[in-house]
Design goal:
Number of strands: 0
Structural class: mainly alpha
Radius of gyration: 17 Å
Helix content: over 70%
Shape: elongated
Order of helices and strands: HHHHH
CATH superfamily: Ferritin, core subunit, four-helix bundle
CATH class: Mainly Alpha
Largest sheet: none
CATH topology: Ferritin
Number of domains: 1
Length: about 170
């Protein structure tokens, strides 16, 4: 990471960070979760989100261009930590818990993305980049909708799991 001396520098760093996250979600994390989960509704939701995330990658690249910069990524340590935590939980958990582990990872990732996009939106607004704010708002709205969907699925999976384990 280069030295950050201006709010614009920080914005571009954070934008490179979220582009890294979105690309890793498309290339690795979401396909892996889709393969892991058994619940049909959850799997369909993840597939929808994968398609959405591909559009997020393109929108983030457009924001870079609106700032007259070439799109670039910077490794996101926070996301890598979330990914590592999921991988450890997934390998240490009983197969019956795989959907719950995946749902937890999805929820934590959505919260992370929402926080990132809210910060980016505020910075773009302060920098007077209204077109960028509009694109970031579109992504933010979809991330919040996805979080609601994940929370609904997680609640259902938790309730089902509690009932199944109570019957044992």
């Amino acid at each position: 990471m280069s030295e950050l001396t201006h709010p614009r520098d920080l914005f571009l760093h954070e934008l490179a960070d979220i582009l890294y996250v979105e690309q890793k979600l498309v290339e690795e994390a979401l396909p892996k979760l889709i393969d892991e989960v058994g619940d049909a509704e959850f799997k369909k939701g993840l597939q929808r989100h994968l398609k959405q995330t591909r559009s997020h990658v393109e929108k983030v690249k457009r924001v870079f261009r609106q700032f007259r910069e070439e799109p670039k990524t910077e490794e996101c340590v926070g996301f890598e930590g979330l990914k590592k935590e999921h991988d450890e939980l997934a390998s240490d958990s009983a197969p019956a818990l795989s959907d719950l582990v995946a749902a937890g990872a999805a929820a934590r990732t959505e919260h992370y993305e929402i926080a990132a996009y809210e910060g980016l939106r505020r910075m773009a607004k302060a920098l007077g980049e209204d077109k960028s704010v509009q694109l970031l708002d579109e992504i933010l709205k979809q991330e919040k909708e996805t979080l609601k969907e994940v929370e609904k699925i997680t609640t259902r999976l938790n309730n089902q799991g509690a009932k199944e384990f109570a019957l044992r």
